Amino acid sequence: AAKNELNSYWAAADIYKVKDEALYKKLQYGRELVSHTAKYFGPRGSVRRMNNGLNCQNCHLDAGNKIWGNNYGAVFSTYPKYRARSGQVEDIYKRVNDCFERSLNGEALDNNSPEMQAIKAYIEFIGKDVPKGEKPKGSGIFVLPFLDRAIDPVQGAKIYAAKCQSCHQANGQGILAADSVEYLYPPLWGANSYNMGAGLFRMSRFAGYVKYNMPQGVNFPESQLTDEEAWDLAAFVNSQQRPSMDISSDWPKIKEKPVDHPF
């Protein structure tokens, strides 16, 4: 029954079935950029050195294909759209550059660059089978119900030590791959992590993300964390030091600001 249930969830369109060679190359480059962003734009990037060394895939798991793994399932179907954070209608370029400037704590990509065009083509292609305006099941991040108590960073520290630090390390700085270009396990705080403008800096987003994706190897509908553990983990990780960003113009209409954003 669970298997049949999963069949109703979003599945990415398969780029490897594309026959048009030029399109296939573009989509493959887009996937490569999402999977290994640091190779191209990290501190040792081959195209330009302009971000913290994380890969898009560190937050958008399996190159944006995974159910509830912060995937791209609803991007093509729902953009352009109004976003309360900026108070304006945004296109896919703006959405991608938000990640470059916030989660990758770096600079925006030129919209006309081959890299931006490849990323955009890839995101649009894998979501092309979703009807316009619809959000498919399993797209984005799972929404966890709020707890009936305050979330607890002290409890979160214990959960982190038990279930997270073997990969992300006790100091939260992750582990660099042998080539020192990409992270094997990304840093969760400190100078090379996402900044305070990033989506995962919202407690609800972080908690929903780890619930069905962490520790590594966990897949929906299985989980190794209770809802309470996921929330407390968010409290611990997001109370650590990380890069700042000028977010004074975020949520210009204050009544649209999510209750759990800390500013």
From the N-terminal CA to the C-terminal CA, the straight-line distance is 43 Å
Which parts are unreliable, with pLDDT below 50 for 5 consecutive residues or more? none
Task: Kindly report the average pLDDT value.
Answer: 96
The biggest sheet amounts to: 2 strands, antiparallel
Total E-strand runs: 4
Q: Kindly estimate the percentage of residues that lie in beta strands according to DSSP.
A: under 5%
Derived structural class: mainly alpha
Overall 3D form: globular
* Total helical segments: 11
Strand order of the largest sheet: 1-2
The value of Rg in angstroms is 18 Å
Helix content: 25-40%
Order of SSEs, N→C?
HHHHHEEHHHHEEHH
Short description:
The chain is mainly alpha-helical and 263 residues long. Helix content is 35%, strand content 4%.
How would you portray this structure in words?
The chain has 263 residues and is mainly alpha-helical. Strand 1 and strand 2 form a beta hairpin. The mean pLDDT is 96.
Task: Based on the model shown, name its key terms.
two-stranded antiparallel sheet, mainly alpha, 4% strand, 35% helix, 263 residues
Show the helix and strand layout:
Layout: H1 2-6, H2 21-35, H3 37-41, H4 61-64, H5 75-78, E1 81-83, E2 88-90, H6 92-101, H7 114-126, H8 153-163, H9 165-168, E3 175-176, E4 183-185, H10 203-211, H11 227-237
Antiparallel strand pairs: 1-2, 3-4
